[in-house]
Design brief:
CATH architecture: Roll
Number of helices: 3
CATH topology: 2,3-Dihydroxybiphenyl 1,2-Dioxygenase, domain 1
Shape: globular
Mean pLDDT: 94
Radius of gyration: 16 Å
CATH superfamily: 2,3-Dihydroxybiphenyl 1,2-Dioxygenase, domain 1
Low-confidence stretches: none
Distance between the termini: 26 Å
Order of helices and strands: EHEEEHEHEEE
Structural class: alpha/beta
Helix content: 25-40%
């Protein structure tokens, strides 16, 4: 087995697609709207020339999947950065930090030495928090 996709809750799919493609530099892998499911949109992004791994940018659903109270709770957790835990690796953490910063991505701290390597964090427009590491 191998991991093919992972899901990230987003508050606005169009804004998320723009962020991941224009600021992070990923590309759209799939973008399908299914009318029979109430115009459910399945949109994934991933690294260009990647191994096929992708992130599903999943809108927080309402009824009948989630009642309004649950939807509001999930949206609150997303905005606070507590609804995901994705970790990215790079061979050049400083270069990645510089590129994301220059693109206007909200970075969290500068690259810092950790027991596992050098890393920093960033947030997407929905509030999700991610980490990028150059492993030692």
């Amino acid at each position: 087995m191998k991991l093919s996709t992972t899901q990230v809750w987003v508050l606005d799919q169009d804004e998320a697609v723009s962020f991941w493609t224009h600021k992070v530099g990923f590309e759209i892998k799939e973008d399908v709207t299914i009318a029979e499911l109430g115009n459910f949109r399945w949109v994934t992004v991933g690294p260009k020339d990647g191994d096929g791994t992708a992130i599903v940018l999943m809108a927080v659903p309402g009824e009948p999947v989630m009642d309004s109270a649950t939807k509001a709770q999930v949206e609150d957790l997303v905005a606070k950065g507590f609804a995901t835990g994705l970790f990215f690796t790079t061979d050049d953490v400083q270069g990645t930090y510089d590129r994301l910063s220059a693109a206007g991505v909200e970075v969290i701290g500068e690259p810092t030495e950790q027991p596992y390597g050098i890393d920093f964090g960033f947030r997407d427009p929905s509030g999700n928090h991610f980490r990028v590491a150059q492993r030692s």
